[in-house]
Task: inverse folding
C-alpha cells in the first residue's frame, strides 16, 4: 500500500508536469483605476500570466478590464482577474472571456517556447 503522503506528492508532481507556463519577460500595458500602467510580464501560460509591478499592484479579486502585450504573432488584448498579489512585487492574472483564436495563439506561443527550451 502506497503511503498517502507519497500519493499526494506524486499527484502534485504530475500536475506540475502538465502546466504550460513559460518564463519570458516582455512589456505590457494594463488598465488600472488610475489609468494605463506600463509593466512587464514575467511568465505566461494560455490561462494567465504574472505581471511585475513595484508601484501599482491591484487587490486580489480585482478585474483587469484591459491587458495588452505583443506576441511574435501580433498584439494581444485580454481581460483578467487578479488571483494573487504582493505589494512591491507584482500580481498574477487569470485571463477571462478569452476567445478561441487568442487561446490558440497563446498555446502555440507557450508550446513553441517549451519546444525551443528542450532542444
Result:
Amino acid at each position: 500500500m502506497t503511503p498517502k503522503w507519497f500519493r499526494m506528492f506524486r499527484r502534485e508532481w504530475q500536475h506540475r508536469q502538465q502546466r504550460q507556463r513559460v518564463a519570458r519577460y516582455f512589456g505590457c500595458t494594463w488598465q488600472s483605476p488610475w489609468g494605463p500602467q506600463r509593466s512587464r510580464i514575467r511568465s505566461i501560460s494560455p490561462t494567465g500570466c504574472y505581471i511585475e509591478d513595484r508601484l501599482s499592484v491591484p487587490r486580489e479579486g480585482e478585474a483587469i478590464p484591459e491587458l495588452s502585450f505583443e506576441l511574435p504573432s501580433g498584439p494581444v488584448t485580454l481581460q483578467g482577474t487578479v488571483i494573487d498579489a504582493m505589494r512591491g512585487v507584482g500580481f498574477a492574472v487569470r485571463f477571462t472571456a478569452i476567445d478561441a483564436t487568442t487561446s490558440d495563439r497563446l498555446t502555440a506561443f507557450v508550446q513553441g517556447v517549451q519546444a525551443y527550451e528542450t532542444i
User: Anything to note?
Assistant: The beta strands are 22-32, 35-44, 48-52, 63-71, 74-86, 90-96. Residues 23-117 form a domain with the Thrombin, subunit H fold (CATH 2.40.10.220). Residues 11 and 17 are 10 Å apart (CA to CA). The longest strand covers residues 74-86.
